[in-house]
Amino acid sequence: MMRVTAVLVCAALAGCQAVPGEGPLASAINTDGGKSGAEIGRQNAAVFEIVDVDNTSAQLVSQYFGSALKRRFGFGSGGAGRAVIGVGDVLKITIFEAGSDGLFSTQDSKQTSLDVVIQPDGQAAIPYVGLVRFSGKTLEEARQTILAALRNKAVEPDVIVNSVNTSSRMVTVSGAVGRSAQVPLNLTGEHITDVIAKAGGPVAQPYESYVTLVRNGRSGTTLLKSVIENPSENIYVQPGDQIFVTRDPRTFTLLGAVKQNARIEFGANDLNLLEAVALGGGGDDAAVNAKGYFLFRYEEPEIIAALIGNARFNQMLAKGMKSDKFGRYPLVYRFDMSRPDSLLVGQTFPIKSRDVIYAARHNAVDFAKFLALVSRPVSVVAQGITVANGIGN
């Protein structure tokens, strides 16, 4: 009779939700996904979409490479740019003449070398030419400017302009690198990894090193591993850029009906879903719902659109789905460990830093807890009522 009563009371409590538990049941997550706060029954509830992890979705996520730098760094990848002379640069200017009685030649030498420093106004003085504006010009443009000024003064002149010091083409590299430094850029252009290498390279592994690029009051951050693996993200740096390298070990959080609830470091270049669950000791066989593994993540909008389609994505935005400060949106991946192919699919689904993996408990766990509660001796219940009355008074 007690068990029948327990079942009836448990049903009235909406699936034993009133008993203690470490998190939502799988049914609650599946019901809440995609609903607005009003539909869920609470204000300001986060709206998220649920996507099943299968062979197609796992392959799509693992193979995705975003055109990240335009969004992550806030700049297009661009090219090397135009290497021009700037204030503070030191140039070596060599002037040649055909005759020995020219302005810059003697019987012993038909050439003269001059070292000039570009002044704050962008100009420098050349004998018999006067002030020449160098700032903003390439070496060849500067050569042609000097040559044109000497044609009616020197004897069949020719000019060579070489860069000695490029103070105006400096990039600051600091943080978790071998040695923080101001790195001079060469005239052909250099990538992020080039200037980091000049600063001694990162002190930590690329999979736990983040690169922040600051340019013209804007900044963006990405994982150094992503820059190395995706050449399109290894953008050209520009004079005046600031690059900060920080070590931040990638971690994920494992919660629910698993043997270890913890924040866990990757400790490797890559980590898949099965490996992540295994790092926490695996699911608790006595409690876990094999069909109720969920991965909570703020995902890139391009991936969401590819997974659910633009129409569904727009519907979710209309329902109140909000992005984080990086422009990513909440997505929950649902993983069914009861399926035989889950052991293959799980190997191809990559874990990202700050992911939260939740293993829901089985419904039977709450039912067993409820039976334990209602099966307690009446004296214990009476004591509880007495204590409650005392607190109320």
UniProtKB/TrEMBL annotation:
<dbReference type="InterPro" id="IPR049712">
    <property type="entry name" value="Poly_export"/>
</dbReference>
<keyword id="KW-0732">Signal</keyword>
<dbReference type="InterPro" id="IPR003715">
    <property type="entry name" value="Poly_export_N"/>
</dbReference>
<dbReference type="Pfam" id="PF02563">
    <property type="entry name" value="Poly_export"/>
</dbReference>
<protein>
    <submittedName>
        <fullName>Polysaccharide export protein</fullName>
    </submittedName>
</protein>
<feature type="domain" description="Polysaccharide export protein N-terminal">
    <location>
        <begin position="83"/>
        <end position="162"/>
    </location>
</feature>
